[in-house]
Amino acid sequence: MIRVKRLLLDILKPHHPNVIDFSTALAEKGNYQVRLSVLEMDDKTETLQVEIEGESIDYEQIREAISEMGASLHSIDGVEVENSAADTD
Amino acid sequence: MIRVKRLLLDILKPHHPNVIDFSTALAEKGNYQVRLSVLEMDDKTETLQVEIEGESIDYEQIREAISEMGASLHSIDGVEVENSAADTD
Amino acid sequence: MIRVKRLLLDILKPHHPNVIDFSTALAEKGNYQVRLSVLEMDDKTETLQVEIEGESIDYEQIREAISEMGASLHSIDGVEVENSAADTD
Amino acid sequence: MIRVKRLLLDILKPHHPNVIDFSTALAEKGNYQVRLSVLEMDDKTETLQVEIEGESIDYEQIREAISEMGASLHSIDGVEVENSAADTD
Amino acid sequence: MIRVKRLLLDILKPHHPNVIDFSTALAEKGNYQVRLSVLEMDDKTETLQVEIEGESIDYEQIREAISEMGASLHSIDGVEVENSAADTD
Amino acid sequence: MIRVKRLLLDILKPHHPNVIDFSTALAEKGNYQVRLSVLEMDDKTETLQVEIEGESIDYEQIREAISEMGASLHSIDGVEVENSAADTD
Amino acid sequence: MIRVKRLLLDILKPHHPNVIDFSTALAEKGNYQVRLSVLEMDDKTETLQVEIEGESIDYEQIREAISEMGASLHSIDGVEVENSAADTD
Fold first, then answer.
1. 20 to 30 Å CA-CA from A31: which of C26, C59, F5, G17?
2. How does residue F84 score in pLDDT terms, banded at 50, 70 and 90?
3. Residue of G nearest to E1 (CA)
């Protein structure tokens, strides 16, 4: 079974919701650990680097959650996936 | 259950209270560990980087405590949240 | 027996499939762990550094999988092989 | 209970007492570990970075000790405090 | 008994055999672990840094293997040898 | 009881005694570990960084030993002292 | 008893013997571990950094061995000595 274990995302978001509510909303989508750093800030927006770690991350849910909070996912800068199934293709 | 485990704050404060009393006041809000570094200092103010770690940090209490001491929270530069509940959304 | 334990690949790929599907497709070829970083991005393509680790990596399968997804393998930047057989040549 | 666990101090001192006697005098104030580095030295003074670690550091005692040795505390560059009490405010 | 435990080699090789076959051929000479990095690449050749680790590396065999694959050993940039015999000279 | 655990010394010495005899002479003053690096060398002298570690370093003995070998102690660049006594002042 | 545990040597040697034979010859003088790096190479000579570690290194033997191989010891860049005797001076 293949699982996404880590995502490194580059996100642009408005000031609201704040970074704490934003991180919390992403962590709520699974048993995730979310580490957020603010890279740049201007009058209306913040550029964030967000690292999400978990046993099995549902990327589509993360993408929707980002979008619903009025933020936009600029790029996926890193991915870690693991295939730990005993039987391979 | 989602918990804030770490905050990295950029704070501007007047010289009084001093950094020891300031750190202590923040740690008092919970079983927190507070690490404070003075980044810049001028005649009237100090720019601080304050890292707060704890099992579950109450951000609103921290924000109020900063404000009550005459300091202003410039930005939240980092957040770590963890969702360790067994049942997810 | 000689096994390839690690590959570090420099890959150019179109935006589709996205990096998550791309990583997943590579991990599917064996019990691999895949770490992908996006180094550059322009209108049509992304330059990737992809690190693959596993007990025994089948390079030909990896090469075909990259090719089938419309991406091109620029170079193999690193290799680790291990000879753990008791009897040597 | 809130305890100061670490202080990072920027100190200007005359050449006498020397850095060994100076460190020793600070360590005497409690069961402290004192690490001192000389950052600059000129004809009459030395600029020191002094790190003090302990289970519970008494800042006022440290400040007095510095002053009694003819040195001046330029700034507190770092503080670590810990609240390890079970019952919080 | 004195054993060579590690070699760091600077090698120039043609594009064929590729770095995977090249690494494998070196590892085959003993129970070696081979880590290869491509430092430069031009139209006809690749400059490699090759690190070989093993319990007891036979340098002459390595040198011949490199030569048989049409590559040339530019320099030995590092060596580790260990004398673990109980009786010394 | 307060003990000096580490000294970092900047020393200028003539070429004789050589750095091995010099280090040995310092280590002889106690159960010390001495790490010496040569920072600069000219026709007649060598600038050394000497780190001494021990359970309880006698600075005066070290200073005399340096002097007796015709070298001069330029500065004490670092000190670590520890107060591990149960009863404090 | 005072023992030399580590030497860091700057050596100029002709191309022959090669670095493997050179390292081996030094390791033979005791139960030493020898790590050699080639820092510079020109037509006739190689500048080496050689690190020797052992329980008790005999510097005079090392010096002679270097000399017998036609190389010259430019400088001793580092020394570690340890005094682990129970009774001190």
1. C26
2. confident
3. G28
CATH of domain C2-82: 3.30.70.1340
What's the mean per-residue pLDDT of chain B? 93
**Chain F residue whose CA is closest to G58:** F20
Choose which CATH entry (3.90.550.10, 1.10.10.10, 1.10.260.40, 3.30.70.1340) describes domain G8-82. Answer: 3.30.70.1340
Distance CA A79, CA B34 (A): 32
The rounded distance, in Å, linking the Cα atoms of F86 and G7 is 40
User: pLDDT tens, F21-69?
Assistant: 999 999 999 999 999 999 999 999 999 999 999 999 999 999 999 999 9
Task: Select from A7, A75, A82 the Cβ nearest to the Cβ of C41.
Answer: A75
Which of the four CATH numbers 3.40.50.150, 3.40.50.880, 3.30.70.1340, 3.20.10.10 does domain F2-83 have? Answer: 3.30.70.1340
pLDDT at site D34: 97
**Among G76, G77, G87, the residue to mutate for chain F (most F Cβ within 10 A):** G76
The share of chain B scoring above pLDDT 70, in percent, equals: 94
Instruction: Cite the DSSP H helix spans in E17-81.
Output: 19-27, 59-68
Q: What is the rounded (10 degree) CA torsion for B66, B69, B72, B76?
A: -20
Q: Which residue in the block uniquely carries the two structure tokens 């699982």?
A: A3
Q: Which chains touch A (3 or more CB pairs under 8 A)?
A: B, C
In angstroms, the Cα distances linking F76 to D37, D44, D72, F58, G80 are 8, 15, 20, 14, 19
The interface predicted TM-score of the complex, written ipTM, equals 0.79
For tokens 């030995």, the residue is E76
The C-alpha of F68 sits at a distance from chain D's nearest C-alpha, in angstroms, of 21
Q: How far is F6 from chain G (nearest CA, A)?
A: 14
A24, A30, A37 member nearest B81 (Cβ): A24
Please name the residues between 52 and 81 in chain E that touch chain G, using a CB distance below 8 Å: 59, 75-81
d(CA E46, CA E41): 4
Q: Choose among B19, B26, B32: nearest Cβ to D76.
A: B19
Amino acid at A33: Q
